[in-house]
Amino acid sequence: MAEQRDERDRKGITRRGFLQIVGAGAVASMAVTGADGKPATEAIEPTEMTKVGLLINGRRHRLLIEPRWSLLFVLRERLGLTGTKVSCERGECGACTVLINGQPRYACMTLALEAEGKEITTLEGLMKGEELGPVQQAFLEHDALQCGYCTPGQIMAAEGLLRSNPNPSLEEIRLGVSGNLCRCGAYEHIFRAVRRAAELRKG
Ligand code: FES
Ligand code: FES
Q1: Are 147 and 184 in contact (CB under 8 A)?
Q2: For residue 192, what are the CA distances in angstroms to 29, 149, 173, 195?
Q3: End-to-end CA distance of the chain, in Å?
Q4: Which residues form ligand 1's pocket by a CB distance below 6 Å?
Q5: 97 near 153, Cβ under 8 Å?
Q6: Strand ranges for 40-168 from DSSP E
Q7: Which atom of ligand 1 is nearest to the CA of 87?
Q8: What is the pLDDT of residue 10?
Q9: In this predicted model, what pLDDT tens digit does every residue of 135-180 receive, in sequence order?
Q10: Confidence of residue 24 (pLDDT cuts 50, 70, 90)
């Protein structure tokens, strides 16, 4: 018993205490006892929240968030914009693609705080009232999906491509959606849909 207490005193924190702190998440630093017995660093509250203003699909949102929250988490779990899909959450699949200032970005790899002051567009923002936007319409016409899970990300990548290059070649289309994986292998249909979307956008 005394041995255990000595061990804890030497390390300044017990194993159980450490696990409790890690389990709380979002702990930026722990209070560690220095040689003089005083805390070496200040503890940061795990639930520290900060105000953020986000411009999403032309609408301003003001909310309280934790600094560690990704844009993906905020879109889906705080704002109910579930058109943006969650899959790998480590920048590998593209399912979570949104536009930030017109450029395709992975929402799972972007902190919500980083997106402040920028224009964010999600799948919902491509709708024209109750009607599908041109890229969405083209994906429907060309049956550019099987399970459909990658489709929102593919559509956002295509939208970003067509905003910067309204008349892309096949090679440019391949490159434009190369950050978006389709496990069903619907690539040929996706490429055709992007060509069609380019035509529809011209009207
Ligand atoms: S969920 Fe973001 S890249 Fe896969
Ligand atoms: S349609 Fe299934 S992953 Fe692309």
Answers
A1: yes
A2: 51, 18, 9, 5
A3: 80
A4: 86-89, 91-96, 106, 108
A5: yes
A6: 50-56, 59-65, 97-100, 103-106, 119-121
A7: 1
A8: 40
A9: 999 999 999 999 999 999 999 999 999 999 999 999 999 999 999 9
A10: very low
**E strands in 68-162:** 97-100, 103-106, 119-121
Token reading at 142 = 């060309």
CA of 3 to the centre of ligand 1 (A): 48
Question: What is the C-alpha separation between 98 and 161, in angstroms, rounded?
Answer: 12
Ligand 1: which of 87, 156, 183 to mutate, most ligand atoms within 8 Å of CB? 87
Nearest CA to ligand 1 atom 3: 91
pTM score above 0.90: no
Polymer length in residues for the chain: 203
The residue among 52, 51, 17 whose CA lies nearest residue 32 is 17
Q: Determine the atom of ligand 2 nearest the C-alpha atom of 148.
A: 1
Residue 140 one-letter amino acid: L
